[in-house]
Specification:
The protein has 226 residues and is α+β, with helices and mostly antiparallel strands. It contains nine helices and four strands. It folds into two domains: 73 residues, Glutaredoxin (3-Layer(aba) Sandwich); 136 residues, Glutathione S-transferase Yfyf (Class Pi), Chain A, domain 2 (Up-down Bundle), CATH 1.20.1050.10. Helices cover 60% and strands 8% of the residues. A four-stranded mixed beta sheet has the order 2-1-3-4, covered by helices on one side. Strand 1, helix 1 and strand 2 form a beta-alpha-beta unit. This is Glutathione S-transferase. It comes from Colocasia esculenta. Belongs to the GST superfamily. Tau family. It catalyses: RX + glutathione = an S-substituted glutathione + a halide anion + H(+).
C-alpha cells in the first residue's frame, strides 16, 4: 500500500493554518482527501481525532491523527522527502520552526482579537500586532542569508499564507496591518506563493475570503454574546 493512501486532511478553506498544510501536501505531490469542516458545527470525526484542541487542521494518515500545523508540516516533510520543506542544517531548521511557531502562537492569536473585537480592545490589538510585526521584521532582516532563500519551503508557506490572511483582515478592520514596507519578509513569501503554480491553487480569491470572513465574524460574535 502506498504511503499516501488513507490520507485525509480536515480543514477550513479560509484558514491560513489549513492553507499551509494543504500547500505542503500539494508540493509533495501526494494524494489526499480534503474534508471541509464547519467551525459552527464540527464533525464527530474531527472531535474524535483532535479531542484536546478540537480544531483544524487535522491530518489523518493510515488512521493515525496529527494536530497542530507545525507538527503536521514536520511530519509531512519527514514522510515524503521530496521536495524538502525544511533545511538540512539543524540550526536553520530550528530557526524556521521558531518563526513558524511565532506566527502561530503570537501573530495569529492577536489577529483573532482584531477580527472579533471592537473599540479600545481592537485598537490595542492593532497596536500589539504592529509591534510584533516590527520586531519580527527587524530580527529577520538581521539574519542573512534568510532560511527561505533557496526556494519555496515551510517558512515561505507559513509567512505567505499568514500575510494573505492579515491583508484580508486589514481590509475588514479598515487598517493596513501588513505591507511590503512593514513586513518585507512576509510580503516576499506571499509573492513566491502567488507565483508558484501548485501553491497558488490553494489560495482563495481575495474578495471571496473577505466576504466569507465578514459572514463568519457575525456568527462568531453572536455565539460569544450568547
Amino acid at each position: 500500500m502506498a504511503q499516501e493512501e488513507e490520507l485525509k486532511l480536515y480543514g477550513l478553506w479560509a484558514s491560513p493554518l489549513c492553507m499551509t498544510v494543504e500547500v505542503a501536501l500539494k508540493l509533495k505531490g501526494v494524494n489526499y482527501e480534503y474534508i471541509q469542516e464547519d467551525f459552527a458545527n464540527k464533525s464527530e470525526d474531527l472531535l474524535r481525532h483532535n479531542p484536546m484542541h478540537r480544531k483544524v487542521p487535522v491530518l489523518v494518515h493510515k488512521g493515525k491523527p496529527l494536530a497542530e500545523t507545525l507538527i503536521i508540516a514536520q511530519y509531512i516533510d519527514a514522510t515524503w522527502e521530496e521536495p524538502p520543506l525544511l533545511p538540512e542544517d539543524p540550526y536553520e531548521r530550528a530557526m524556521v520552526c521558531f518563526w513558524v511557531d511565532f506566527l502561530y502562537s503570537k501573530l495569529l492569536p492577536v489577529s483573532r482579537t482584531i477580527f472579533l473585537s471592537e473599540g479600545e480592545k481592537r485598537e490595542k490589538a492593532i497596536e500589539e500586532m504592529a509591534e510584533l510585526i516590527r520586531r519580527m521584521s527587524k530580527e529577520l532582516s538581521d539574519r542573512v542569508p534568510l532560511p527561505n532563500d533557496k526556494g519555496l519551503g515551510l517558512l515561505d508557506i507559513a509567512m505567505g499564507t499568514s500575510y494573505f490572511w492579515l491583508r484580508a483582515l486589514g481590509e475588514i478592520a479598515g487598517v493596513e496591518l501588513v505591507s511590503e514596507e512593514k513586513a518585507p519578509f512576509m510580503y516576499s513569501s506571499l509573492v513566491k506563493l502567488e507565483s508558484h503554480a501548485v501553491a497558488k491553487e490553494v489560495l482563495p480569491e481575495r474578495g471571496t475570503l473577505v466576504e466569507h470572513a465578514l459572514s463568519v465574524r457575525e456568527k462568531m460574535r453572536a455565539s460569544i454574546a450568547f
